[in-house]
Write a structure and sequence with these properties.
7-stranded parallel sheet
């Protein structure tokens, strides 16, 4: 309330005696209390009406999509469903496609001169076909300010989001106001005019003054007023289309989360449960999730993931990249703090420290404390005293001066495959903290890269008894048993199962041929026996036009920028990144490498999202391919294949993740008859290993010899490819 600070303070009065309010001041208090009551009632009820508004807008938008699809279907398709239907009659009357029949309905068909029987047959067949198209429709909100139906839907979701957030944030206060204020309003009115006070008995005047004081207490302590004002404005007049579309592009994941609360988006509920045994699912679903400190709308599968982590206590959340593992972790932390816990510890790579801090502060009321950099000890001391979510790196974790008896309520290990070897220094330090933490949550979209044994090591940090049942020498025949054994410690969901609205991803292999200069550089590298030089030889030129890959890269970037898209270019090699930066000039920001301080990395990502900023982010794949969220980009370019399939998958997931609103294009720059071709073959075989053991999908046509679980090391891989290429070149030079 804007006038709250003008309320008179009660004067000194004998104990038990109410302060005698002046009529004008009492009247102002009653008016403000009535307004506060209106605000409270709005916050407890507005989401109901807005929910119906969203449902209506969604239904209308979906119907328009169905009708659009059926405009391409001629009325002859109706004849296939109703053999007695005379389609020629419909065509003669001007009805050419199914949508025309659907919109007209039986009555208007009859008015157009079509017989009642034919009209009924045509209408029923059209509705049947529309139902089938609707059932197959994969609903997605495409960014299109010129679409009036989608615009109304996004505006409705915006208002619904404000209302649900405000209701959640102020529900206890709104209920208290609704319970307390009405009982004081009527008695207080006796104090609002001189005449009423003159004619009222003494006891009624005393009761009136007490009621005014009680109302003044409610008004002065109110916190819901500003949010109620925003909700009222959104209900009456939603933001303009351009403004709300910009907000949708920035927060599309939250919009879809809101939509999923109102309508069934076709999510696979079994997939959301990750194929867990029925008894585990029942325990998870029975687990409450306190969202008091959470400022985000969770999807159904995200709620399940957070509850799973709470119930199972020490687990790996292995969701495919882009499904919001960070958000689920924050939900777990928010629940624990809301129910009495104090200390949460997050351990992650340095490249994502800033992102973790932002996510915690943006999506919750938890305090984020960064224990990294020169002031880490001071930050650690503050966290020890006041609690909150402490964020540190694998390297810093062992250097912190923290008491041994400190037992975090939750330890989150992001990119947990960094500690797949428990014998390393970072592995031992993570185990030390994991052993003393009440709950431990490992996050990794790719928990096993090459070997089942490594996955066993990760489970061993959490539930040794489960790890003891895993056979590190298993082959594909053990995949089903593998899934059953790890269910208590491992939950994974895949994008295609739970994110029905995620835009498509188009992957293109851009095969080129060496020219004279880059080809000569490649032959020299092969003859020198230098595997790394072979991988980057396509860029070992003095002018861009001498490199087939650089020429194609320039074409791809030009096309993307002309189409209003943002691009990420990845390479493993610093020398390649320098070539790319020289090629792109002011179009690009970067290079984002391991030597770039963490805040500067985030600044580069932010620059890509700014209007009028650079259109391309150039990044080393080992630095920018992990943990960062770059939904602003919808085109990903790899300058060369990577040794591990998971490295590329993680890099793609920087753009193709929840919150992306455009189809993602992935381009791989490749040269025929080179190291690229052989590595692409190996990438496919290694990806199959992960598919069988760690994904939810069943084995269909598998044999034990289909994949070598003990995948070759990078050293043996390079030796094999080098030998093959030397042999191939020697044959061509004979």
């Amino acid at each position: 309330m804007t006038e709250q600070t003008t309320l008179p303070s009660p004067a000194d009065a004998p104990a038990g005696s109410p302060r005698p309010w002046k009529a004008r001041a009492a009247r102002r208090v009653v008016e403000q209390a009535q307004a506060l009551l209106d605000d409270a009632r709005l916050l407890t009820t507005a989401d109901v009406g807005l929910r119906e508004r969203v449902r209506d807008a969604y239904t209308a938008t979906r119907e328009v999509r169905v009708h659009a699809d059926l405009r391409t279907v001629g009325v002859t398709a109706l004849e296939e469903r109703r053999k007695k239907l005379r389609v020629a009659v419909l065509e003669k009357a001007g009805f050419k496609h199914v949508t025309q029949v659907l919109v007209a309905g039986t009555d208007r068909l009859v008015e157009a001169g079509i017989g009642a029987g034919t009209a009924k047959l045509a209408t029923s067949a059209a509705r049947e076909l529309a139902d089938e198209v609707d059932a197959e429709l994969r609903f997605r909100i495409d960014v299109d300010p010129d679409d009036p139906y989608a615009t109304v839907l996004v505006q409705s979701l915006y208002a619904f989001g404000l209302a649900t957030d405000a209701r959640h944030r102020h529900l206890d206060e709104a209920r208290r106001v609704s319970d307390v204020v009405p009982g004081h309003l009527e008695p207080a009115r006796a104090a609002t005019s001189v005449w009423r006070r003159l004619v009222a008995p003494a006891d009624r005047r005393t009761a009136a003054f007490r009621a005014v004081s009680a109302l003044a207490d409610q008004v002065s302590s109110a916190r819901l007023t500003d949010d109620a004002r925003a909700v009222r404005a959104a209900v009456g007049q939603p933001p303009e289309g351009g403004e709300v579309w910009a907000d949708f592009e920035a927060r599309s994941a939250e919009y879809y989360g809101l939509l999923s609360q109102v309508v069934d988006l076709g999510d696979d509920h079994e997939a959301a449960e990750g194929g867990l045994p029925a008894d585990v699912v029942r325990r998870v679903e029975a687990q409450p999730l306190d969202r008091t400190l959470l400022r985000a709308n969770l999807r159904g599968y995200q709620q399940f993931g957070a509850k799973y982590a709470l119930v199972q206590r020490r687990t790996i959340l292995g969701d495919e990249m882009g499904l919001g593992k960070t958000m689920q972790s924050i939900a777990v932390a928010a629940h624990l703090v809301a129910t009495g816990s104090t200390h949460v510890l997050v351990v992650c790579p340095a490249s994502v420290v800033t992102n973790w801090k932002r996510e915690v502060e943006q999506h919750s009321d938890l305090t984020a404390v960064v224990m990294h950099g020169n002031d880490r000890e001071q930050a650690a001391a503050g966290w020890l005293e006041t609690g909150g979510v402490a964020i540190t790196t694998f390297e810093v974790l062992g250097r912190l001066d923290l008491p041994y008896d400190l037992r975090p309520a939750l330890m989150v290990v992001d990119e947990a495959h960094y500690v797949k070897n428990p014998e390393t220094l970072r592995g031992r330090e993570v185990r030390r903290w994991a052993d003393r933490s009440d709950r431990v949550l490992f996050l990794s979209g790719t928990p096993m890269e090459n070997k089942v044994a490594e996955f066993k090591n990760m489970v061993g940090y959490l539930q040794p008894e489960v790890a003891g049942q895993l056979d590190p020498n298993a082959d594909l025949s053990g995949a089903r048993a593998f899934r059953r054994i790890v269910a208590p410690a491992y939950l994974r969901r895949n994008q295609e199962d739970v994110l029905t609205e995620l835009p498509e991803m188009v992957q293109v292999e851009e095969w080129e041929q060496f020219g004279p200069v880059d080809g000569a550089a490649y032959r020299d590298a092969v003859l020198a026996g230098n595997f790394m030089a072979m991988r980057r030889a396509a860029f070992a030129v003095s002018a861009p036009d001498e490199s087939a890959k650089l020429v194609r890269l320039r074409e791809l970037v030009t096309e993307a920028v002309d189409g209003g898209r943002r691009v990420i270019v990845f390479s493993y090699f610093l020398s390649v990144l320098e070539q790319v930066m020289d090629l792109l000039g002011d179009l690009a920001v970067g290079p984002l490498t391991g030597s770039v301080p963490v805040p500067e990395r985030q600044a580069m990502v932010d620059a890509l999202s700014e209007s009028g900023g650079p259109s391309v982010l150039v990044s080393q794949i080992t630095a920018g391919g992990v943990g960062l969220n770059v939904q602003a980009a919808s085109v990903v370019v790899f300058c060369e294949p990577q040794v591990k399939p998971t490295i590329e998958a993680q890099a793609v997931a920087r753009a193709h993740r929840m919150g992306q609103t455009r189809t993602v294009q992935v381009h791989r720059l490749l040269v025929e008859q080179s190291v690229d071709q052989r590595m692409m073959e190996i990438l496919g075989s290694k990806a199959a290993l992960f598919e069988e053991f760690a994904r939810q999908s069943e084995i269909t046509d598998a044999s034990p010899s289909a994949v070598d679980v003990a995948a070759p090391s990078e050293t043996s891989l390079s030796r094999t490819i080098l030998a093959e290429e030397q042999e191939r070149l020697s044959r061509t030079m004979r």
